[in-house]
Amino acid sequence: MRFNxxxxxxxxxxxxxxxxxxxSTHLDLDRIELLENTSKPRxxxxxxxxxxxxxxxxxDAFDEGALLILGPDLPDADALPLPAVLVPDPSRTLQASAxxxxxxxxxxxxxxxxxSLLEAxxxxxxxxxxxxxxxxxxxxxxxxxxxxxxxVLCAGHLPDDFHDELWTTAIETGVCPTELYxxxxxxxxxxxxxxxxxxxxxxxxxxxxxxxVRNLLHNGAYHGCFELVDAxxxxxxxxxxLADHLGRLLVLILPRQIYPQLxxxxxxxxxxxxxxxxVRGRVLAYELSKLGWSLDxxxxxxxxxxxxxxxxxxGPHRQTLRRIERRYPRARFLEAEDDAYxxxxxxxxxxxxxxxxxxEEPAADDELPVRFLAGFSSVFxxxxxxxxxxxxxxxxxxxxxxxxxxxxxxxxxxxxYDDCWFDDLSDRLNxxxxxxxxxxxxxxxxxxxxAREDTRYVETVRAYLESGCSAxxxxxxxxxxxxxxxxxxxxxxxxxxxxxxxxxxxxxxxLRILLSCRIVSQ
Length: 522
Fold this sequence. Notes:
This protein is an alpha+beta fold. The protein is built from 20 helices and 18 strands. Residues 287-398 form the CdaR GGDEF-like domain.
């Protein structure tokens, strides 16, 4: 690994050095040499010199590199053109060559550590083994978390009597206490989960400990992080340098996906929800915040695919996704099985009623093939139920493929779950034609009258209830005048005792009545 001026400063801590530079992990060094008359400025070089040597060399000509100066009389810091570390030596017991040997030995140890890490990664050693090697360079223990903040791996020495609610709980249970440290992490940085450099989280008031965090980001995707706690020693700037180097090595191997614990695609909170796994509220809230969404935003899911005829004429399924993405840029799209896609959209961005109204408009008879098949879920107000919404959309699409639709527009055939709720209920209850035990006797009475006189009373009840007891919508569905509908409702009340316009007056169970109408109709 590259040397660094912060590492130089910390390894000479027993000599009480003085830092004349701004701490930065960017101050990398790749060469250490004694400063002599023949030396020339060079980027990445650390020049070691005794104070007397500086008097014989035009140090002002040096505009690249860094300095390590020792001696009884140290130069004025303002007169130095380069970042520098000063080592006081009033007794003249130190020699530049001795410091050079000491630093070279330390650099060899770091190179050996870095090579051991690379060797473990190259042979696809377990993540635990890799982190055990990594921990040897730190005085404090480290803990690795995945992107969903569920998976936990610990390495390094943790004192037996050490207890920290942000650490010990995680180690004992194997689950990161996200609720505990989420606020602390966010308060430490405006971009705590997007920072690509190691950073300190200062002492927490309730724990008394400080932490060092390094995110694992690849192509803008968050794959998790590793963190250290000051259980054994106070943090130094060199810890930042080592953490950044370790982070860079881990990020390099992320594309190989040899560590499923750090595989974003399998640990993304949205994917976890769709897979049926629990996701902590804080984790889900953060993931949604990256989209500008909140946890309680009303939303729905659409499952769609290109029709077989459309894909035959227009190319691969990927074209389907591109078309829909351009039309709904504020929605999120996910790939599903069977060459289908999921669209998660907020109600306030794309109101479901407006989509329904648009799709239910009569389509032009242009004799063009159907392009899309789409199933829509109900509207939900809690993203924890995302899997349920996706299942509803899937059922609606499956019901559509079986021949029933809510409408066709713009070469799209759609089905809404709210229109096939009873079909789902029938499937889940495993109802068959012999489901008379579920029927409301009043509906049966109306069905018999329909059979004798062709009065369409059951159809009227069903349309009225499915329209949310709206006379206007029910009349439109039945293609009759509102006065005709009003007359039928009065006849239904007289014949069966069901007052659909005032259900409480006749103790009408609207759900049972509607279910009975659906069963009778089948």
